[in-house]
Amino acid sequence: MVEKFWTPYHLIRKEISLFCDALRDFINREVLPHEEEMDDYWDWTERKEHTFVEEIFRKLWIDLGLQKAFVPPQYGGIGDWSMVENAAVIIEVTRGDVGLGMTGFISQWAVASIMIPTPNDLVMKYVAERLLKNEPYIICNAITEPHGGGAIEDVRLQGAQIRTTAYLDGDEWVINGHKLWPSAFREADAYLVVCRIEGEKFPNNIAQIFVPADTPGITTSKPYRKMGCSIDTNGDIWFDNVRVPKEYRLHEGIDEVKSLIAKETIGRCVNCAFAVGVLRRMYEVLKSYVDKREIAGRPMKEHGLIAYELGQVLTDMQVAEYTTWYAFERLDHPETYGSLWDYGQFSMAGLCQNIVTERAEQAISRAINLMGSHGYAKEGKMEKLLRDVKVTQIVVGGPLLRLLEAVRHYFGTETI
Ligand SMILES: Cc1cc2nc3c(=O)[nH]c(=O)nc-3n(C[C@H](O)[C@H](O)[C@H](O)COP(=O)(O)OP(=O)(O)OC[C@H]3O[C@@H](n4cnc5c(N)ncnc54)[C@H](O)[C@@H]3O)c2cc1C
Fold first, then answer.
1. Which of 30, 118, 191, 240 sits most deeply, having the most CB atoms within 10 A of its CB?
2. Which residues' Cβ are closer than 6 Å to ligand 1?
3. pLDDT confidence of 4, banded at 50, 70, 90?
């Protein structure tokens, strides 16, 4: 039996709960048996043969219907989930593998940018048509640049550090620049590129531009090798005089800034859900270990000190889960807590990501201590989780910037 821990079922409709059950079965059947292989499959987009990773994504997005849920109902999809329901779904997938979660929901993150604060109808129709087909369609979010992800995401810098530029030439944007790290950078069918508009002042200088991946002028590197999160591919993307219609800019002026802040708010909460997914897997691995292991002739978990430490693991887990569910529930209630681009929501999401991901790392580290060298060995299935969970701290601006943003909001600190 899989423990469901602190999921707020009173906030989740029956059909979504059943969908979560189906996802859990899928993860048990199709993903966890590949757990070890997925840990070192960073080059799967390089391989000529059809890989099991492609098969898993196809089943997840198409056969189980996840991709249709990325499309809002007014564009023909079934994506009417609340943020809390969304978190429940993300947690189930990430329990299988954090990279599966990162790439799995990447197009949904892009759709949020297209829809918020008001939909870009033309781009949304284009994207919806493809997401609703029976083929995987991946939209990569190209934000980070070589000189820093934090500097791009830091809204106080008003776009000054964005070095990927765009200018209008007649009816077309011409994009030049270098992005790196974006999830699914290689297998993407399209990119959302954060650019600085040449010659414009804040807020008109910031743009998110939709770019189909087959547009001439785009090249990519090989995927990077990372400490974890292997099947989520990351690398360089170069844009060399890439031309797209001017309507492919998502929003204008302050709306573009709102969209970008909302994107970060959502991304930060989603990383909380990723970490909770990893924690649920940690619990299963730890439980099956302490159920069997004996120390000094007695079941391990019957030793007082061990029971205490298991309690500490549970405490970390509960803090992580409660913080996550609270963060998502706030996003569901903008009438009470403010819009997704409101600085209060934004800094709350950043603090939540820090709390949840630090607790997750701590819990897994405690679990490794409890398992001794078995926890440190690949066969123990725990060390992968420690490496995997680390990424949930790093992405979307890094922990220090998120802390700083909260201090700016609550103490009025005027740092750069
Ligand atoms: C698996 C994976 C998936 C990713 N997916 C994507 C993606 O889909 N799209 C994308 O664009 N990028 C993606 N990234 C990149 C990631 O979002 C960035 O690495 C992250 O934002 C941090 O940027 P950086 O590495 O350049 O570090 P830096 O920006 O150099 O930051 C380093 C440290 O300094 C801190 N810092 C930053 N600014 C300040 C400041 N003003 N004051 C004090 N401290 C500060 C940061 O918080 C961090 O702790 C991904 C990375 C990985 C590993």
1. 191
2. 102, 141-144, 148-151, 153-154, 181-183, 229, 232, 234, 391, 394-401, 404, 416
3. confident
Fold (topology level) of 9-131: Butyryl-Coa Dehydrogenase, subunit A; domain 1 (1.10.540)
Mean pLDDT on 166-179: 98
CA of 149 to the centre of ligand 1 (A): 4
Task: For residue range 174-214, list pLDDT tens digits in order.
Answer: 999 999 999 999 999 999 999 999 999 999 999 999 999 99
Ligand 1 pocket test, pick from 100, 395, 396, 416 with the greatest ligand atom count within 8 Å of Cβ, gives: 395
CATH number for domain 139-253, candidates 3.40.50.970, 1.20.1440.230, 2.30.42.10, 2.40.110.10: 2.40.110.10
Q: How far is the CA of 145 from the centre of ligand 1 (A)?
A: 9
pTM over 0.90? The answer is yes
Residue 134 neighbours by CB under 8 Å, 6+ apart? 62
Question: Can you give the residue ranges of every domain in the chain?
Answer: 9-131, 139-253, 255-411
Residue 1: per-residue pLDDT = 53
Residue written as tokens 């989603």? 270
